[in-house]
Amino acid sequence: MGNVLLHQVIAGLATGGIYASMALALVMIYQATHLVNFAQGELAMFATYICWSLLQAGVPYWAAFFITAAGAFVLGVLVERLIVRLVDDAPILAVVIVFIGLLVIFNSIAGWIFGYAIQPFPSPFPAEPPFGNSYVSSHELGSIAITLVVLALLFVFFRFTPLGLAMRAAAQNPQSSRLVGIRVGWMLALGWGLAGAIGAVAGMMIAPTVFLEPNMMSGILLYAFAAALLGGIDSPGGAVLGGFIVGVLENVVGMLLGTELKLTVALVLIVGVLVIRPQGLFGRVHVTRV
């Protein structure tokens, strides 16, 4: 029982890293627009299909990996520039409908181009467990490592680079940022691009586990949403921690109560957080003077 529990916890950390990446992408968009990008999972799925196409064409895995991440960055920028910017001053409900429309559009385009058949997606890591252990697979360990590297790079970028600081300022206080010469519009577009690239990495890491098909990210996005709410929808660090918590909790619940209830865990977390602590574990309470 102890060995099984240990394996489930480690596997939960691996999938939790994927949820953490997607939750971080959601938080980045939320900080810029104060809206949840419901199309984030479909953007990640579409980027994963691009990587799969490159692999089918004979491109080495890591070359395809970085090309896909760069392409997803450009795709995110284009979506913000060409679509989201046009509804910047529209009512919130209209923007939400646009996000849902993007979800349906990318899902349909992926099915039209690539088909709806389930495709195997290769893992860049060896099939044999590392060091001969039976607790964690090479792909699970590699997914955790890549997630931590991406999160560390983002931390350094936003904390210590002028561009990262400008993006944070534009997201938190656009009016004051404009007064000091920051091009807020482009900073928001770059934020969408980074969210697209992060989502693409998450998609490429989860695809070997869930297999590749147009609806592969629907459940992942729900878990990521639960993670973002649990940690705090306006707290990048909280969203990351929430992702790992959701991943471990999902696997442990699946072991104890059955896999049928795994998705229910995300729904219970979302409802519970909204009822008990809407700002999440590390989110801030916003007080508005009226």
Automatic annotation (TrEMBL):
The record lists the membrane-crossing segments as: 6-28, 61-79, 91-118, 138-158, 184-208, 220-249, 261-280
Q: What compartments host this protein?
A: Cell membrane
CDD domains reported in the protein's UniProt record: TM_PBP1_LivH_like
Annotated organism of origin: Roseateles agri
By what name is this protein known?
Answer: Branched-chain amino acid ABC transporter permease
**Similarity comment:** Belongs to the binding-protein-dependent transport system permease family. LivHM subfamily.
Query: Per the annotation, which location comes first and is thus the protein's main one?
Result: membrane
Q: Which InterPro entries match?
A: ABC_transp_permease, BCAA_transport_permease
Q: Which PANTHER family match?
A: ABC TRANSPORTER PERMEASE PROTEIN, BRANCHED-CHAIN AMINO ACID TRANSPORT SYSTEM PERMEASE PROTEIN LIVH
Q: How does it sit in the membrane?
A: Multi-pass membrane protein
Q: Which UniProt keywords apply?
A: Amino-acid transport, Cell membrane, Membrane, Transmembrane, Transmembrane helix, Transport
Its ancestry begins with:
Bacteria, Pseudomonadati, Pseudomonadota, Betaproteobacteria, Burkholderiales
